[in-house]
Amino acid sequence: VTDLVVRADATLRIPAVASGRHPLVPLGGRVVLEAGARVTDLAGNVLTGSVANGTFFELSSALRWKGGAGVWSDPQGWFDSGTGEFGAWQPGRTAVFDAPQGACVTNDARTVDVAGFIVATDATLCGGTIRSSTGELAVPEGATLTFQAPFAVEGDGRKGGGGRLALSGEQRELGPGALVIDAGPLALSNVVAPCVTNVTVANGAFIELSGVNELTHFLGEGFHISFKEEEEGLLTGNTVGIRDNGGGKSIVRGGDHTL
Are 130 and 152 within 8 A, CB to CB? Predict the structure, then answer.
């Protein structure tokens, strides 16, 4: 099953798990909870949460940033929907950014551990390394998630939603796994991430570059890019085109340019 739609007045019953994270379909799949749909555990207890990248996240598994600029270690910076209180960050939780930010949320520790990311508005992360155990990033249309801080993924990274994932600066801890862009743009600006060797760009997604040579700084030696087309299957190879968008460049399938 790659697509799951829970209709209004229907109930989805799933086993309770301590993490509050419930993968429902394979990465790249689609889960829709219509208005009025219910999610419960097997005992019938209602589970409140949201869906991102084919996974249902209980609210109790996520911590919501308070909004505005600040430091990650703020002792009152994160709202826990399970307790209804603000508190400090708890390692291994999903980070939610759904309040206007305006400037950086700065990781003032050497490394912070996060399960995944869900944003509903623009969010910019700065400072020390931010490490994700799942590599899941949910960025909806109209929102941008920017990593100025080093972003590290345990395994493969996957961005869902039509919004923009922007990477800049030294990203040497990103990799050696694959990076999958299911929708929307991956924006690269003055980025160095030589460990990334596999990138998959799904149908309708694309890569934005601030310079023609940006991609060679981002990808490691022997890189492999796949452009997925619904009608044509999987297109692979190291030859990609560069499209001038006026203010920048975009990677497109085919073309006469080799990076």
Answer: yes
Indicate the pTM of the whole model: 0.75
Residue type present at position 182: D
Residue 145's DSSP bridge partners are: 123, 165
103 CB neighbour count, 10 Å cutoff: 10
Residues 6+ apart with CB under 8 A from 18: none
Count H helices, E strands: the chain? Answer: 1, 28
Closest CA to 166 of 195, 194, 137: 137
**Rounded distance, CA 62 to CA 96, Å?**
7
Question: Quick count: other Cβ atoms within 10 Å of Cβ 36?
Answer: 10
Distance from C-alpha of 251 to C-alpha of 255, rounded to nearest angstrom: 9
253 dihedral zone (left: phi>0; alpha: psi -120 to 50; beta): beta
pLDDT digits (tens, 9 = 90+) for 133-159: 888 888 888 899 999 999 998 888 888
* Cis check: omega of the bond before 176, within 30 degrees of 0: yes
Q: What is the 3-state secondary structure (H, E, C) of 164-210?
A: EEEEEEECCCCCCCEEEECCCEEEEEEEECCCEEEEEECCCCEEEEC
**Total residues found in the chain within this entry:** 259
Interstrand relation of 49-52 and 55-58 (parallel, antiparallel or unpaired): antiparallel
Give residue-wise pLDDT tens across range 186-196: 888 888 877 77
Cβ-based neighbour number of residue 160 at 10 Å: 27
Residue 194, preceding bond cis, omega within 30 degrees? no
User: Do residues 219 and 207 lie in contact, with contact meaning Cβ atoms separated by under 8 Å?
Assistant: no
